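About this split. The held-out portion is used to measure sequence recovery: a designer receives only the structure tokens and must propose an amino acid at every position. Recovery is the fraction of positions where the proposal matches the reference. Here is one held-out target exactly as it appears in the evaluation file.
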């Protein structure tokens, strides 16, 4: 099989229609199509377009949800295109019955808001395939180019790393079995079991066919449940991202907003409490002497009158005492005879009542009034003035804080919190549904396992019953032969794969004698490297470049062992390799890996020495130039790769 041409229309940076002629002439050694470009120039989009044209949703993985696939297609449409329509057309040739047959597959889609309308067209020899319904196009294309095999022929640096790190993965194991033709043996074994069951008695045959039907139904139900789970997982991922966004919004906007508002409210409450205390102190002062400080002239007059009254009261009291004493002396007591009238006149002259007005009436005793008025001069008036200033300042602070509160949008934090809670509720519901779906898948798998055991039991019983019939006996013998052949084929392919891998690895590796042998487990195709000293080499001990060489060597060895001729598309294989390993790839791998190799790399990776080495094998060269301003890629055909880079 060989690719002839690919046309991209409004895909990523490929605004408008862009076609690449991919034909090579391996007969004269020109088997490489080189596509150069800067990072972000459209190289990965080119590789993705090949996968997308052939496999549609499966290109993203076997269990990709439809919603995830539609989001992917929406993102693939050029942002600067004049329309929201996109298409990929891939033309290729393959040999059928000794003849080259051409095919063209076109996958197109249109955006309708957030939804996608997709179509798939398939043409053979320039004509529609009349004996094939349109609903069968996708399955037919995958039969032409099996999806499992594509993982080993259309790959990028990430796939190389995956193979280097996970050579025992289920996906890789199935792809390798298919590539080596081992899946055909399994299918033949199943077909012979069905044949044998139909030749046995009706009850046993019916049991076998019923179990096969149940198995097929369960497998379809399991696949449907896994598809639903993938859809739920996609929704869960979207909901989780929504929760993250809501949390970020609440923290950066609503949360900070709410905290600031709470701080202002706390300050306002403190100011109100302070105002209440200041007001209480001023009220207590107002209930006492503070009002008197507002009339200092009247206070002075009151003080003078009270003093005069107090002094007058004292003078009259002394005069009364002198009068009483004089009267007592006049009674003729001898001890008091020494006091004459002059003496009493002198006493009375010393205690003058001038200024003391007995007719002045006060609202309290003059002593009490004078004592209270004396308190006005002990600093209390200044204290009351300070309290009044504090009260005014506190009142201004309250007004300012209230203005700040008026500026807050209280709904902002509430809205952010509401969105966060809603997102968390949605995520919680989806996670519960996902848990239930996992339980259903586990139940289906248990049922399928039980059914497989029943099928094995019926198959063994059938073998015993079928031994009496010649046809069934031949089928059983064929099954036994197939089992032996399958084991022998597996061992042979494993042995050839081991030999090819050691050859490929040592040819590409800078350390030519690093690996002397390799052990490959037939059950899961896990690999153990053996050094020249016979000791196993841990892959973790290999450098990053050596692990890349390991992965590329495994792909190369698989292609050589399978004998299949499929195009190889490699995106950026040099990123983790030093210059020596890059030269080995260009010199030893690319010219012989396949009759058609499409190499995608940056112009910084393809140095002049590498270009000079690869030039004899170049069939075509394209250069991608992307403009950031226009957000589009232009394609230029390059006549000489070495001159372009020199």
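Reference sequence for scoring:
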């Amino acid at each position: 099989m060989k690719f002839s041409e690919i046309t991209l229309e409004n895909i990523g940076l490929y605004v408008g229609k862009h076609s690449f002629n991919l034909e090579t002439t391996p007969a004269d050694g020109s088997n490489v199509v080189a596509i150069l470009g800067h990072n972000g120039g459209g190289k990965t989009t080119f590789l993705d377009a090949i996968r997308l044209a052939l496999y549609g949703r499966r290109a993203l993985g076997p269990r990709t949800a439809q919603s995830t696939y539609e989001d992917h297609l929406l993102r693939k449409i050029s942002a600067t295109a004049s329309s929201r329509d996109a298409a990929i057309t891939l033309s290729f040739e393959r040999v059928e019955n000794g003849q080259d047959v051409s095919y063209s597959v076109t996958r197109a889609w249109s955006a309708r808001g957030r939804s996608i309308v997709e179509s798939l067209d398939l043409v053979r020899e320039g004509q529609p395939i009349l004996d094939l319904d349109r609903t069968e196009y996708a399955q037919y294309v995958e039969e032409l180019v099996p999806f499992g095999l594509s993982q080993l022929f259309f790959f990028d640096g990430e796939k190389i790393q995956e193979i280097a790190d996970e050579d025992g993965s289920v996906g890789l194991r199935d792809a390798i079995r298919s590539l080596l033709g081992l899946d055909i043996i399994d299918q033949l074994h199943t077909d012979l079991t069905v044949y044998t069951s139909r030749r046995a008695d009706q009850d046993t045959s019916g049991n076998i066919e019923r179990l096969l039907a149940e198995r097929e139904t369960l497998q379809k139900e399991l696949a449907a449940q896994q598809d639903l789970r993938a859809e739920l997982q996609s929704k869960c991922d979207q909901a989780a991202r929504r929760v993250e966004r809501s949390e970020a919004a609440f923290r950066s906007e609503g949360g900070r907003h709410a905290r600031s508002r709470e701080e202002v409210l706390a300050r306002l409450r403190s100011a109100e409490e302070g105002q209440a205390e200041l007001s209480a102190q001023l009220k207590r002062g107002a209930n006492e002497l503070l009002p008197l400080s507002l009339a200092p002239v009247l206070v002075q007059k009151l003080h003078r009158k009270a003093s005069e009254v107090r002094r007058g009261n004292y003078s009259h009291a002394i005069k009364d005492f002198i009068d009483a004493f004089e009267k007592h002396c006049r009674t003729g007591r001898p001890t008091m005879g020494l006091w004459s009238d002059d003496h009493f006149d002198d006493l009375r002259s010393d205690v003058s009542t001038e200024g003391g007005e007995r007719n002045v009436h006060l609202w309290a005793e003059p002593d009490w009034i004078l004592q209270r008025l004396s308190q006005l001069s002990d600093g209390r008036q200044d204290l009351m003035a300070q309290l009044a200033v504090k009260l005014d300042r506190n009142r201004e602070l309250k007004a300012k804080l209230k203005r700040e509160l008026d500026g807050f949008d209280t709904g902002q934090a509430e809205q952010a919190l509401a969105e966060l809670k809603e997102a968390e509720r949605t995520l919680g519901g989806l996670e519960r549904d996902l848990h239930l779906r996992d339980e259903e898948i586990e139940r289906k798998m248990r049922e399928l396992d039980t059914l497989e055991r029943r099928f094995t039991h019926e198959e063994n019983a059938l073998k015993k019953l079928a031994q009496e019939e010649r046809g069934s006996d031949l089928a059983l013998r064929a099954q036994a032969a197939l089992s032996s052949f399958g084991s022998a084929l597996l061992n042979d392919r494993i042995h050839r794969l081991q030999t090819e891998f050691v050859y490929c690895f040592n040819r590409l590796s800078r350390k030519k004698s690093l690996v002397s042998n390799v052990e490959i487990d037939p059950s899961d195709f896990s690999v153990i490297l053996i050094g020249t000293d016979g000791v196993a080499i841990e892959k973790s001990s290999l450098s990053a470049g050596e692990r890349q060489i390991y992965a590329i060597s495994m792909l190369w060895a698989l292609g050589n062992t399978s004998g299949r001729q499929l195009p190889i598309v490699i995106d950026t294989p040099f990123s983790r390799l030093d210059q020596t390993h890059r030269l080995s790839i260009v010199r030893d791998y690319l010219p012989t890996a396949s009759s058609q190799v499409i190499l995608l790399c940056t112009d910084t990776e393809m140095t002049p020495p590498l270009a000079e080495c690869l030039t004899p094998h170049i069939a075509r060269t394209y250069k991608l130039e992307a403009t950031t301003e226009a957000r589009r890629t232009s394609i230029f055909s390059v006549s000489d790769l070495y001159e372009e880079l020199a």
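Annotator remark: The CA atoms of residues 242 and 423 lie 6 Å apart.
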